[in-house]
Specification:
elongated, binds magnesium ion, 6-stranded antiparallel beta sheet, 37% helix, binds adenosine-5'-triphosphate, alpha+beta, 5-stranded antiparallel beta sheet, 11 helices, Beta-Lactamase, 4 domains, 20 strands, single chain
Length: 505
C-alpha cells in the first residue's frame, strides 16, 4: 500500500531528478529544523491536470514534515499528504512564484496562536521545485547567544536553498547515523577556524582530550587528527569522518560547507559521540565469536565422549560392545551439527552439508568386502538449528540401518548395492527419503510396533520433537532405465516447513 508521502508525490509534476534533490533535502533537514527551532514543511505544487487545481491559483501538497528536536513543536498533527490552498497560504504562493523568500504571520487552523512563517523557495538549477516552510511561535524573550548563532546558520542554509546550492549532490548519511544539532555543533570560518562551539560539542571535544580555548583556532591545530573540515572546505562538499581518539572515544564528524554565491564562507561541523554505538558493534561481533567458540567446544567434547565410548567398547565383547559402538556413532552424528554451527553460528544451518558428513560416516562403517554406492539428490537448504540436530540423528540411524541390515550376509542383488537419500523442500514441508535395494523389511514389520532402540529413537524424534510423520515400507529400488531391484526398503519422513517469521521450535 502506498504511504501518504508516496501518494503526495504522485500529485506533483516533479521529475526524477527534482525528486532526488528533495529527498536529499529531507534526509538532512533535521539539522535545519534544529537550527531554526522550528517545524518545517516541504510543499510542492500540485499538478495542473488535477481537477480544480488551478481554479483559484496554485495549490500545494505537503511532501514532508520535520519537527525540531530542541524545542516544542507547533504542529501537533501529521500533515504529510495534505493539500494546502494557495489562497490560504499566500506567502507560499509568493515564494513559489517569485523564487524569493517571503515572511509574515499567519493564523493556521492547526495552530492555536498566529504563527511566524518563513517560506524558502527550494531551487534547483535555477528553477523553483518546492517551498520549505518554517513555522514558529513568536516568542517574546530575547534570544541568547546560542540561539542567535543557530538562527544565523539557518539563514545561511536558507540562502543556499534559494541559490540551488543545498542539498548537496551525492549520497547523504543514513538518517539514523546522521548527527543532529543537539549532538553538538562547531561553526568554522572559511579557513577552518572555530567561530562557535555548542556546549555539547565542547563536551565531546573534552572527552577527546581537547581542553584548549577553541575560538579562533583550527581543530587540527589542537591535536585532533581530522581532515574532514579541510576537505570539506576545499571541495565545497560535505565530508563525514569518524575520529577515534584513544581507544575508548569515537566521534563522528559531519562537516557541511556553507556557501554564498558559489564560494565557501565557512562550515558547519556536527559532532556525534558514537563511542557507545561502536562499542555495541564490537560487542555484537565478539558475541558471535563467543557462540562460535561454544559450538566448537561442544563439538570437541562430543568427540571426546565418542572416543571414550569407542575405547570402552573395545574392551567388551558381544552385545555390550555393539551397544557402545552404537552409542558412540549417535554422539558423533550430533557432533556433526555443532561442527557446522561452529563455522557459522546462525539460527539456520545448511543441512545439505550435514548430509554430506553423515553419508561419509555411513560409508566409513561399510565393510571392505561390500560394494555400496551412495546417491544424494535434492536439497533441503537452510534448516533451523533445533531441527537440524534431531534430524541429523534420525538420518544417521536410517543410513546405519541400511548399511547394517539391508545387505546382511550378502543378501539382496549380487554385485553393487545402492543407498539413496532424496530431499525435497516446499513451502509447506520438508521431505527426506532414504532407500536401499537390500533384502527389505522383515515380514510383519511395522514401525509403530518396533521396540528396538534405533527405530524407537527415530520414531520419537520425528513425531515428538520434529512434529513430522514417518513411514517405512518394502519398496523396490529404481535402478534407472525403468528397472527396479527385486526388493528394498523405503523410509519417508515429512516435516512441516517452519515459517521463518515464526519462533523456532
Ligand atoms: N533398511 C533396512 N533394511 C532391512 N531391514 C531393516 C532396515 N532398517 C531396519 N530394518 C529392520 O528393522 C529392525 C529394527 O531396526 P533398529 O534400527 O530399530 O534396530 P537395530 O538396527 O537392529 O539396532 P540398533 O538399536 O542398534 O539400531 C532391524 O533389526 C532390521 O531388522
Ligand atoms: Mg539401527
Amino acid at each position: 500500500m502506498a504511504t501518504p508521502a508516496e501518494l503526495a508525490l504522485e500529485r506533483t509534476d516533479l521529475t526524477r531528478h527534482q525528486l532526488d534533490h528533495l529527498k536529499r533535502l529531507m534526509a538532512t533537514w533535521g539539522v535545519l529544523a534544529d537550527l531554526s527551532f522550528s517545524d518545517l514543511l516541504l510543499l510542492a505544487s500540485v499538478t495542473e491536470s488535477e481537477p480544480h487545481a488551478r481554479e483559484s491559483g496554485p495549490s500545494f501538497v505537503v511532501l514532508g514534515q520535520m519537527r525540531p528536536s530542541n524545542s516544542a513543536t507547533v504542529v501537533q498533527s501529521d500533515l504529510v499528504g495534505q493539500s494546502v490552498g494557495g489562497v490560504d497560504w499566500p506567502l507560499v504562493t509568493a515564494a513559489f512564484q517569485s523564487g524569493e523568500m517571503s515572511r509574515g504571520e499567519m493564523q493556521i487552523d492547526f495552530a492555536e496562536e498566529p504563527l511566524r512563517v518563513q517560506c524558502i523557495p527550494v531551487r534547483m538549477e535555477g528553477e523553483t521545485v518546492a517551498v520549505m516552510v518554517r513555522l514558529a511561535t513568536g516568542s517574546g524573550r530575547r534570544p541568547g547567544h546560542l540561539e542567535r548563532t543557530y538562527r544565523d546558520v539557518f539563514d545561511r542554509f536558507a540562502i543556499m536553498l534559494t541559490q540551488s546550492a543545498f542539498p548537496f549532490p551525492g549520497e547523504s548519511l543514513a538518517a539514523e547515523e546522521a548527527p543532529r544539532v543537539g549532538d553538538g555543533i562547531v561553526l568554522v570560518d572559511e579557513e577552518g577556524r572555530v567561530r562557535y562551539a555548542s556546549p555539547n560539542a565542547t563536551n565531546a571535544l573534552h572527552r577527546m582530550g581537547i581542553y584548549s580555548q577553541l575560538e579562533g583556532r583550527r581543530l587540527s591545530d589542537l591535536g585532533l587528527q581530522e581532515s574532514a573540515i579541510e576537505w570539506s572546505l576545499a571541495s565545497a562538499l560535505p565530508v563525514v569522518e569518524e575520529v577515534e581518539r584513544r581507544p575508548d572515544v569515537t566521534v563522528l564528524m559531519h562537516c557541511i560547507p556553507l556557501l554564498e554565491t558559489g564560494s565557501v564562507t565557512g562550515g558547519l561541523v556536527l559532532l556525534r559521540d558514537v563511542t557507545d554505538v561502536r562499542r555495541l558493534d564490537r560487542l555484537l561481533l565478539s558475541k558471535d565469536a563467543a557462540i562460535r567458540e561454544v559450538h566448537h567446544r561442544v563439538k570437541n567434547n562430543l568427540q571426546t565422549i565418542s572416543a571414550l565410548l569407542r575405547l570402552q567398547a573395545r574392551r567388551l565383547d558381544g552385545k555390550g560392545r555393539l551397544a557402545l559402538f552404537e552409542a558412540e556413532r549417535r554422539v558423533r552424528s550430533i557432533a556433526v551439527v555443532h561442527e557446522i554451527l561452529s563455522r557459522d553460528p546462525s539460527d539456520q544451518v545448511p543441512f545439505d552439508e550435514i548430509v554430506t558428513s553423515l553419508v561419509q560416516m555411513a560409508k566409513d562403517s561399510v565393510l571392505q568386502s561390500r560394494q555400496i554406492v551412495f546417491h544424494v539428490t535434492g536439497k533441503l537448504g537452510e534448516v533451523s538449528a533445533d531441527v537440524a540436530t534431531p534430524l541429523a540423528v534420525v538420518l544417521a540411524e536410517l543410513l546405519q540401518n541400511a548399511v547394517e541390515h539391508a545387505f546382511a550376509d550378502g543378501a539382496g542383488d549380487p554385485g553393487t548395492h545402492h543407498i539413496s537419500v532424496a530431499m525435497r523442500s516446499s513451502a509447506r514441508c520438508l521431505t527426506i527419503e532414504v532407500r536401499d535395494d537390500g533384502v527389505g523389511l522383515p515380514d510383519g514389520f511395522d514401525i509403530n510396533d518396533t521396540e528396538s532402540l534405533g527405530l524407537s529413537i527415530v520414531r520419537d524424534l520425528v513425531r515428538s520433537q520434529l512434529e513430522g510423520t514417518i513411514s517405512m515400507d518394502r519398496a523396490p529400488f529404481p535402478l534407472g532405465g525403468g528397472e527396479h531391484s527385486a526388493s528394498g526398503t523405503a523410509v519417508t519422513i515429512e516435516l512441516p516447513a517452519v515459517d521463518p517469521g515464526r519462533p523456532t521450535r
